[in-house]
Amino acid sequence: MPVAGTDAHLPAIAREHLTADWLRQRFLHAPDAALAPEIPGDGGQFAGRAPTPAAVLVPLVQRPEGLNVLLTQRASHLRDHAGQVSFPGGRAEPEDGSPERTALRESEEEIGLDESLVELIGQLPIYRTITAYEVTPVVGLVRPDFSLRLDAFEVAEAFEVPLAFLMNPAHHQRHEFEYEVPGDEGPLKGRRQFLSMPWTGPGLAMSNADPDVGLSASTPKEFFIWGATAAMLRNLYRFLQA
């Protein structure tokens, strides 16, 4: 889809602010201006569908060269959001009791991330999807000595992107498209906008061809980060920049 523009006019988050210590303090003492999301959701929901609570983990891997965001690419056969890049996470279960518990449980189930290696430092504002999920992004610092086990049914790959890359709006692409859907009184037309943040490796990636090994270098490829995942990353940018 054509790129309408980027946000290169906005400042990147300073690298000295993209450290574990600075982020801990930011979540402890966030200014009021940081608490309002720039993108609260996808702009609607299916009629008659009750809101469903969900949570995702925003895993920040503490590499020697800096923080990386650990993301997944969903399997291509799934009914919902097939092939899309996402954070590990999912629907809340009654026994979870909190978004933090949901995010950690889902991360263990989807990618085998041991919760003992995750230090939770805070939450971002709820993101409401067009499919009526109310998603709480839970931010955690991840020790780099983890190993992953991908759920082959749900996850095709896991990969890392430098946080500094994602927190630079010059890499935030804006797309616009017109849509038309049938309605009781004729077709409904409108225009929607979404963000993307394409990332091309060197690729710290993992394929289900060998799901029991840790992240390793792979042939560079482009991962197209867009939709709800890109919007939540943009909300993280606002949270850090405000």
CATH architecture: Alpha-Beta Complex
CATH superfamily: Nucleoside Triphosphate Pyrophosphohydrolase
The CATH topology annotation reads as Nucleoside Triphosphate Pyrophosphohydrolase
Low-confidence stretches: 202-209
Describe this protein's structure.
The model is unreliable at 202-209 (pLDDT under 50). By secondary structure, the protein is of the alpha+beta class. It has helices spanning 20-28, 99-111, 163-166, 227-241, and strands at 5-6, 52-63, 66-74, 85-86, 89-91, 118-123, 127-128, 133-142, 155-162, 173-181, 188-196, 199-200, 204-207, 216-217, 222-223. The strands form three sheets. Strands 2, 3, 4, 5, 6, 7, 8, 9, 13 and 14 form a ten-stranded mixed β-sheet that branches. It has a three-stranded antiparallel β-sheet with strand order 1-10-11. β13 (204-207) and β14 (216-217) form a beta hairpin. It has one domain: Nucleoside Triphosphate Pyrophosphohydrolase. 32% of the residues are buried.
Topology:
Blueprint: E1 5-6, H1 20-28, E2 52-63, E3 66-74, E4 85-86, E5 89-91, H2 99-111, E6 118-123, E7 127-128, E8 133-142, E9 155-162, H3 163-166, E10 173-181, E11 188-196, E12 199-200, E13 204-207, E14 216-217, E15 222-223, H4 227-241
Parallel strand pairs: 2-8
Antiparallel strand pairs: 1-10, 2-3, 2-5, 3-4, 3-9, 6-8, 7-8, 9-13, 10-11, 12-15, 13-14
